[in-house]
Structure formats: structure tokens, C-alpha cells
Amino acid sequence: MNSTLRQMNSSFKCLFSGYLLIIALGYAMAGLQILMTSGMADGQLGLSISDVVYSYHGNPTHSLLETKLNGSMQDKLSETERTQLITWLHKGAKKKAFDLEIKAIIDARCVRCHYAGNPSNIPDFSVFDNLKVRSVTQGASVATLTRLSHIHLFSIAFIFFSVGFIFAFSSGLPIKLKNTVLMLPYLFLAMDVSSWWLTKLDAHFAWLVIISGVGLGLVFMLMWSISLYEMWFARDKTTDTRG
């Protein structure tokens, strides 16, 4: 294999390009998933500071259950059932109203997944107290943050190692600038995960979550676009055309 993307033969170009195209699709799907889950934390489509604050720090005036009903669980109930649950939450999530009206909805729609002993370790909603404690948004728990942190650190680091490996063969940028670009994803990744924990402690750090996420996306697009451009569009007189 030759030393730059411009000089590589077609086999390596196809190998690297296929990976870059698929990983870009995966990155786009991850962004869409964030919009459909965390981006609905405040009940409105689109990622905002409020979404970040509700997801990590919590909001004592807002219900975690209401957040889910307006977000990732919205399609699991009919509009009438969802309205009944939200109204019940707004009225204080009383036990009497639960027994009379809400329990039937929970048993029909929720307990199929939220049952005792579920291997995914999600709460058992057949028990009233488990619903009551989630009637206020408390943000991500320490256990949840720990789980998400180690998954995020390992998976995103591997993604940027692979994309960075390809980008390292580019030749269009000064070496110091290229090395800076190669290091930026890891700095933004460390900032991203750290900002979750900081936002859990203080809502003002929510801006760091947005900044680090945007930074990761911009660096990804920069490395991705330069790599593909140099492989297929940039000309090099020494390119081996025999591959």
C-alpha cells in the first residue's frame, strides 16, 4: 500500500470508501435516534438545552414519565391513553386514581416490557411505587451515567480510530494541522462524557454537552470528506493506475 490516499490503488480505495460510507450512515442514524429520544425530553422535537438539562440534571417540576410519554414511548399508547396518563401525573399521581383508571392502561400497555425480572433491568411498572418515584424527573442516575460513559468511550473511540487511521494517509493538510485534527475527536469525547457528569451536578454545564457533540460531528465530517476527496477526486501524478 502506498503512503497517501491519492496514491493508493483502487482496492484500498474501495475498502476505505465502503467503510466511510457505512459509518457515515450509522452516524446519521445515531443523530436521528438522539433527536427522537433525548431530543424529546422537553416534549418538543429538536435538541435543546432544556432537553440536555432534563436528561442529565433533571427537573423537579417535570415528570420523567411525562418525558417518556412525549418522547421514546409516545408510539406505545393511543393518544387517549397517553392523555389520561399525563393528566394523572399533573394531578399528583394519586394512588386512588391509579387503581380506578390508570392501572388498566399500565397493565395493557406497559407491563409487557416493564415487569419484574426483566433482563434489561428496566423498572417494574406493575408496582405503584415504581411509577410514583418517577413522577418527578430526577435526571440520569449514577448507574446510568456509568453504563453510558463506558459504552460511549469505547465505541466512539473505536469509530474515530478507524476514521482517523484512514485520514492519517491524507496529504492535503500541513502535518501539524493534520495531527491536531486527529487528536480533536478524543478531546471532544472526553469533554462530552465529562459534561454529562458535570451537568448532573449543575445544569449550567449543559452547554458543554452541546459544544462537545457538535465538535465531534464537525471533526467527523472534516476527516470523512477530506479522505473521500483525496481518494477519488484529487489528482496525483504518481498514482498507480494498475490497481
UniProtKB/TrEMBL annotation:
<keyword id="KW-0472">Membrane</keyword>
<protein>
    <recommendedName>
        <fullName>Elongation factor-1 alpha</fullName>
    </recommendedName>
</protein>
<feature type="transmembrane region" description="Helical">
    <location>
        <begin position="205"/>
        <end position="229"/>
    </location>
</feature>
<feature type="transmembrane region" description="Helical">
    <location>
        <begin position="151"/>
        <end position="169"/>
    </location>
</feature>
<keyword id="KW-1133">Transmembrane helix</keyword>
<feature type="transmembrane region" description="Helical">
    <location>
        <begin position="181"/>
        <end position="199"/>
    </location>
</feature>
<keyword id="KW-0812">Transmembrane</keyword>
